[in-house]
């Protein structure tokens, strides 16, 4: 794929600086280290304004507030409290300049509780949202390569529009089962068709990093959102000094996990194998224990740590995130009642 010249080369730096103002400093500090998303304590009532289906299994939902909504930057997501009380994260895929609505696009996950509820929403339904918050900020760079797998296009779409508006060079590779299952990227191809490669692979499999990177600008900052194997493959294929930013919608595989025991205060002792989390084994016996992001940052599964200490745990003092925290020693005791 060739890179077309930027449409407005002279105003690029100023426009992108506006888009990336907050993100840039933190992002340059470490392009590869994942930063935790800042906690959000703001909760807003919203009303479903419209529900459309750009693909058979993707619902695009517009959420309106009672007035102008809090601003956001490309890469941000909302925590949405669904009708049953379940909390799920959805990336904002609309226009940050439009403060009248938040737009999200949600793929129906087979057996998925939250996505099924989103697909049953109708205009007029009232919900609550928290955020927006941004763990995937767009930082200033001379050129960009965007890689999206399936519904991973949602945070990427506003990035593409912002970079295009700034007149900077960019390329997008969007992969998926088939063209009919790939939302948003057809519209982005309308911005500059020679910069967009929509790559149906005919399967639910993940293309190799070599296939994804073929013909792309070797110096561009890379932004990737898709299935964990896609993110991992691209990260491994890039040189260590290449700027690489990614976001996952589902948890990364557990690496080098040591087995331990989690005891529920006043309840059973549960062995946690090396390749599972405390949350997984606790939900085997207590399926009502709530989770959301499964990456440690949303707070849904943070509980009181009664005994022992943990590693890799973003929860505050005296707490543990069951979805990612692992015992430092052989055993921890947790209190599910907090
Ligand atoms: C920061 C962030 C942004 C996100 N943005 C979006 C977005 O824009 N659009 C969107 O559709 N989703 C997005 N997600 C994912 C979304 O929040 C849910 O995790 C996802 O929709 C599944 O939730 P569920 O309640 O339907 O499934 P659950 O009821 O939680 O899970 C049901 C079953 O499906 C499995 N499962 C869960 N997720 C997946 C998956 N992705 N693929 C295959 N199997 C799965 C589970 O392991 C379980 O076995 C985002 C997640 C994060 C962390
Ligand atoms: S599920 Fe979000 S912190 Fe554990």
So, the CATH homologous superfamily of the largest domain? Nucleotide-binding domain of ferredoxin-NADP reductase (FNR) module
- Count of alpha and pi helical runs: 7
Low-confidence parts: 1-14, 21-36
H/E element order: HEEEEEHEEHEHEHEHEEEHEEEEE
- SS-based class: alpha/beta
Examine the coordinates and then state which fold CATH places here, giving the name of the CATH topology of the largest domain: Rossmann fold
- Helix content class: 10-25%
The count of domains is 3
Report the radius of gyration as a whole number of Å. 21 Å
CATH architecture of the largest domain: 3-Layer(aba) Sandwich
The residue-averaged pLDDT reads 89
State the end-to-end CA separation. Answer: 53 Å
- Strand proportion, as a percent range, falls in 25-35%
CATH C-level category of the largest domain = Alpha Beta
Strand order of the largest sheet: 4-3-6-1-2-5
The geometry reads as globular
Number of strands: 18
Q: Cofactors and ligands present?
A: flavin-adenine dinucleotide, FE2/S2 (inorganic) cluster
In words, what does this structure look like?
- There is one protein chain.
- This protein is α/β, with parallel strands linked by helices and 338 residues long.
- The protein folds into three domains: 9-25 and 136-247, Nucleotide-binding domain of ferredoxin-NADP reductase (FNR) module (Rossmann fold, 3-Layer(aba) Sandwich); 43-133, Translation factors (Elongation Factor Tu (Ef-tu), domain 3); 260-335, Ubiquitin-like (UB roll).
- It is 20% helix and 30% strand.
- It is built from seven helices and 18 strands.
- It has helices at residues 12-29, 113-119, 153-165, 185-189, 209-213, 228-237, 278-285; strands spanning 43-55, 58-64, 76-81, 87-91, 101-107, 126-134, 144-149, 170-176, 196-200, 221-225, 244-247, 260-264, 269-272, 302-307, 310-311, 319-321, 326-327, 331-335.
- The protein has a six-stranded antiparallel β-sheet, covered by helices on one side.
- Strand 8 (170-176), helix 4 and strand 9 (196-200) form a beta-alpha-beta unit.
- It is globular and about 60 Å long.
- Mean pLDDT is 89; it is low at 1-14 and 21-36.
- The chain binds flavin-adenine dinucleotide and FE2/S2 (inorganic) cluster (FES).
- Residues 291-294, 296-302, 321, 323 line the site of FE2/S2 (inorganic) cluster.
- Residues 291-294, 296-302, 321, 323 line the site of FE2/S2 (inorganic) cluster (FES).
- InterPro entries: 2Fe-2S_ferredoxin-like_sf (IPR036010), 2Fe-2S_ferredoxin-type (IPR001041), 2Fe2S_fd_BS (IPR006058), Beta-grasp_dom_sf (IPR012675), Cbr1-like_FAD-bd_dom (IPR008333), FAD-bd_FR_type (IPR017927), FNR_nucleotide-bd (IPR039261), MRET (IPR050415).
- Keywords: 2Fe-2S, Dioxygenase, Flavoprotein, Iron, Iron-sulfur, Metal-binding, Oxidoreductase.
- GO terms for molecular function: 2 iron, 2 sulfur cluster binding; dioxygenase activity; metal ion binding.
- Its cofactor is FAD.
- It comes from Pseudonocardia autotrophica (Amycolata autotrophica).
């Amino acid at each position: 794929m060739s890179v077309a010249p930027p449409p407005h080369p002279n105003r690029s730096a100023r426009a992108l600086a506006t888009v990336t103002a907050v993100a840039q400093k933190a992002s340059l500090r470490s392009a590869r280290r994942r930063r935790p998303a800042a906690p959000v304590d703001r909760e807003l009532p919203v009303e479903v304004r419209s529900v459309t289906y750009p693909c058979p299994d993707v619902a695009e939902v517009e959420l309106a507030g009672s007035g102008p909504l809090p601003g956001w930057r490309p890469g941000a997501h909302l925590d949405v409290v669904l009708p049953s009380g379940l909390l799920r994260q959805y990336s904002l895929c609309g226009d940050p300049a439009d403060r009248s609505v938040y737009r999200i696009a949600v793929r129906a996950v087979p057996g998925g509780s939250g996505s099924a509820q989103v697909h049953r929403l109708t205009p007029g339904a009232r919900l609550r949202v928290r955020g927006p918050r941004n763990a995937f900020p767009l930082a200033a760079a001379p050129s960009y390569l965007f890689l999206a797998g399936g519904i991973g296009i949602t945070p990427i779409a506003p990035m593409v529009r912002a970079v295009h508006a700034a007149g900077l060079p960019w390329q997008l590779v969007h992969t998926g089962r088939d063209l009919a299952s790939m939302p948003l990227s057809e519209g982005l191809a309308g911005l500059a068709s020679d910069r967009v490669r929509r790559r149906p692979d005919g399967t639910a499999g993940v293309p190799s990093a070599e296939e994804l990177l073929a013909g792309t600008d070797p110096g561009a900052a890379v932004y990737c959102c898709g299935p964990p194997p896609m993110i991992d493959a691209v990260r491994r294929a890039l040189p260590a000094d290449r700027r690489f930013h990614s976001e996952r919608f589902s948890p990364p595989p557990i690496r080098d996990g040591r087995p331990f025991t989690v005891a529920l205060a006043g309840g059973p002792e549960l062995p946690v194998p090396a390749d599972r989390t405390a949350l997984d084994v606790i939900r085997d016996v207590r399926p009502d224990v709530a989770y959301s992001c499964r990456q440690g940052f949303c707070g849904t599964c943070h509980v009181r740590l009664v005994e022992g200490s943990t590693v890799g745990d973003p929860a505050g003092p005296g707490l543990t995130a069951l979805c990612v925290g692992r015992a430092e020693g052989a055993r921890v005791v947790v209190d599910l009642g907090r």
